[in-house]
Amino acid sequence: MEAHGHGLHYAYDKGKQMTKMAFDRPIAVREAIMACRNGGIVSIIGVYGGLVDKFPLGTVMNRGLTLKAGQCHVHKYMRPLLARIEQGQIDPSFVISHRMTLDDAPQATTCSCTSRTSA
Predict the structure, then answer these.
(1) What is the CA radius of gyration of the chain?
(2) What percent of the chain has pLDDT over 70?
(3) Rounded Cα gap, residues 1 and 5, in angstroms
(4) Residue 116 forms beta bridges with which residues?
(5) How confident is the model at residue 47 (pLDDT cuts 50, 70, 90)?
């Protein structure tokens, strides 16, 4: 609900947020709905969203989409998952797509990085 984007919908969301008329920018949720296959499921996990404008409810209805949402119980699962990673029971390396320094992180959100891992 704090996504960055482009185009008219993003400008609308950002303008409402800047004028304190709205607090969320649901562009990622809208794009997930539009990208989901007919009859598919859109999951919104771990991010609270309040009231949002320009929500494509008609698209959800006409395409038979299912919305599932809930808070992510990070504190419940973090320690047991970390223990399983440390014991070698789980290998999370498949989710790593890039390696960089923390100083490079701000640029990584706005460009496609060329430094790939060898995982």
Answers:
(1) 18
(2) 78
(3) 11
(4) 98
(5) low
Would the CA dihedral through 96, 97, 98, 104 be positive or negative?
Answer: negative
Per-residue pLDDT at 51: 72
22-28: average pLDDT? 71
What helix, strand, coil percent values describe the chain, rounded to 5? 45, 10, 45
Q: Among residues 88, 47, 90, 91, which one has the least CA distance to residue 70?
A: 47
Which runs of consecutive H residues, i.e. helices, occur in the chain?
7-18, 27-35, 57-62, 74-86, 105-108
**More confidently predicted of 13 and 55:** 55
Range of the structural domain that residue 28 is part of = 7-93
Residue 103 lies in a domain: no
Does some domain include residue 108? no
Domain-located, residue 65: yes
DSSP secondary-structure letter at 46?
S
Q: How far apart are CA 33 and CA 21, in angstroms?
A: 24
Please count the structural domains in the chain: 1
Does any domain span residue 68?
Answer: yes
